[in-house]
Amino acid sequence: MTKTLMESLRELIEPIISTEGMELIDIEYRQESRGWVLRFYIDKEGGLTLSHCSHLSAQIGDLLEIKELIPHRYTLEVSSPGLNRTLKREKDFETYVGEIIQVKTSQPIDQRRNFKGKLLGYREGEIMINSDNQEFLIPISFISKASLQYQFPDPNKKKKAN
For 122-156, what is each residue's pLDDT tens digit? Predict the structure, then answer.
């Protein structure tokens, strides 16, 4: 899929999602075993329900049918980004400072391409991550994939009494 089509989809769909008080996180369009899938990842403060996704799916489906941007059959999906949500935009990195993230880079940084650790900050097109007790500055332009890494609570850790 060309970037132009992705941009067209974002421009067309984002206003609908925003009007509903939600945020468009990402768009995927790829061929899977069952055929082509067009997937919109959305989020909302306080979380999403199945009803939110179903409601938006109907609106988006109708609009895409009218606009005929995609010339062949595909399956439309509208879903939550999940616990290990993808980070792509500068806003994503600013929002999740302090969280554990996983990053893959297109070019090596200190002879590494994979980093997992605490996101320490974002500034001027770079993120700072503490991975393996080292701090790394990674240009956003080098990031091929980044996502939150949900940390399950340690069942052995005792809660502090008030």
Answer: 998 999 999 999 999 999 999 999 999 987 776 77
Indicate the CATH number for domain 90-148: 2.30.30.180
pTM: 0.73
pLDDT on residue 27 = 92
**Distance separating alpha carbons of residues 162 and 159, to the nearest angstrom:** 9
Among 20, 41, 131, 28, smallest CA distance to 74 is for 28
Domain 3-79 class in CATH: alpha beta
Residue (of 80, 75, 31, 34) closest to 53 by Cα position = 80
- Where are the chain's structural domains? 3-79, 90-148
Question: Residues near 127 by Cβ (< 8 Å), separated by ≥ 6?
Answer: 93, 103, 119, 120, 121, 137, 138, 140, 143, 146
Residue written as tokens 């984002």? 14
**pLDDT at residue number 22:** 94
